[in-house]
Amino acid sequence: MRNRFNKITTVEKVLEFFHDGGTIMFGGFGGVGSPPTLIDGLVNKGVKELTLIGNDTGFPHIGIGKLVANGRVKKVIASHIGSNPVAGQLMTEGSLEVEFSPQGTLVERIRAGGVGIPAFLTDIGMDSEFVSSSKEKVMLEGKSYLIETALSAPISIVYAKKADEYGNLIYDKSARNTNPLVAMAGDITIAEVEEIVEVGELDPDEIVTSGVFVNYIVPTEGVNWKWVWE
Amino acid sequence: MGIGIRDQMAKRAAAEIKEGMVVNLGIGIPSLVPNHLSSEMNVMFHAENGIVGMGPSPSQGEEDENLCNAGGYPVSLVSGGSYFDSAIAFGMIRRGFVDITILGALQVSEKGDLANWIVPGKKIPGMGGAMELAQKAQKVIVLMNHTDKAGNSKIVKECSFPLTSRGCVDMIITDMAVFHVTEEGLVLCEVFQPYTLQQVRESTNGSFLIRDDTDKGAKMDG
Prior knowledge:
The structure holds two protein chains of two kinds.
Chain A: H1 11-14, E1 23-26, H2 36-45, E2 50-53, H3 65-69, E3 73-78, H4 85-93, E4 97-100, H5 103-114, E5 119-122, H6 129-132, E6 137-140, E7 143-149, E8 153-164, E9 169-170, H7 179-184, E10 186-197, E11 216-219
Chain B: H1 3-14, E1 22-25, E2 44-47, E3 51-55, E4 76-83, H2 86-94, E5 100-103, E6 107-109, E7 114-115, H3 130-136, E8 139-143, E9 155-156, E10 171-173, E11 177-182, E12 185-191, H4 197-203, E13 208-210
Parallel strand pairs in B: 1-2, 1-5, 5-8, 6-9, 8-10, 12-13
Antiparallel strand pairs in B: 2-3, 3-4, 6-7, 10-11, 11-12
C-alpha cells in the first residue's frame, strides 16, 4: 500500500495527540459506529480529565462508554446518557458534568462547527426551560428562536468502513450516523477504518466524507465488545 | 401490564398508520406497532441515527452490528430504504416529513402538553430526539399506562414534570382507553375491555368529552 498523502499511520502514533484535560469529539450512536481500537488505546494510555462531545455515552462496556466507566471523563456534551448507568451515577455524585442538547440540535451544532457556521437559529426546545433558559433568543419574521452555537474540537475520532490514502471515507449502513459530521468538526480528524485502499479505488460518487476533512487514517482491530443484544 | 394489553395498545396505534407514511417509533410498546401492520402496506420507518426504511429485527445469528435502530438494537432494511447521517435524519423531522411519531410519556396534559424525559428528583437521562419528534412530527401518538405505579393518573390538567413540548400530542392510547386531543379538550373515543367508562373517569385526573368511536373495534361501556 502506498501512502502518497502520509495520512496512513498507526494507533500508537496518533495516541500521542491525546493529553489529560483534552477535548475529544467522537462519532457513533449507542456505540454503533464508534472507533473501538482508538477508544481502547485511550483507555490503556490512561488519559483523564477529558471532555467528550458526541451523541451519547454508549454503554459502560461499549463505545465511548468505556472511557466514562473508567472515570476518565470530567465533562460530556451529549443528547442522552441513559444507556450508561455509570455516567448517570457519576453525574449524580458531581464528578461528571453533563451538558444536554436535543439530539437534532446537537448534531446540527457539530455540523455547523464542521462547515464554518458559528451558530444557527432553531425553535427546538423553546417549551423546555431546561433547554431554553440559558440561551439567547432572537425574533425572526415574528417568531422567536434560540441561538444554538457551533461545536468543534481539537481532535475528532470517527469509524468508517473504507478509506483511501487521501482519507476519503465511506461508511457501513447505520454506522454512518454522526461520523460524517464529527469528521468535519475536528481540527485534527482521525479515521479508524476497516479497510484502506489506494486512491482511485473508491467510486468518487460513493464517497461520503471528503479526505479534505481527514488528517490521519488508522486500521481498526474491529469491535471487541459484546453488544447488549448478544 | 400484560402482553395482551401491550399488543392491544400497539394494534390501536397501528390503525392510525396509512399507506405511504413515514413513521418514527419510540422504544417499548411503540416498537410492537409494526407487528400489527399488513405486510401489503408500504410504510417507511424512520430512525434518528439515519435510516428510512427500517425493517424487522433479524433472526438470532443474522444480526449486523452496523445496522441498528436508534436504541442500538439490530434491525434490517426494506427495499427502497436508505442510510444518511444523523443531521439529515433530524432535518427530516424538523421539516415535517415524519407523518406519525409514536412514543411513551410520563404525563400528558388535557391540552396535549407532553412531559416525557425528566422525573423530578431522579437522574436525568437526557432528551435524545424527543423534543424534535414531539414538536415537528405531523401527528404525535402517546402510548402509556393510564396511571403510574402509585396509581396516579398520567393524564393531568397541567404537567407537573418538566415539559418536552407544549400542545404537541394528538392522541393518547392507554391500557384503558383512547383519547383525541382537540381544540375543545380531551375527547374519549374508546374504552378497552374490561374497563368501564366509570373506571376511566375515576383513573383520569382531567376532564374529557365523550365521543363513541366503536367502529374502531373497541366498545364504549357504561
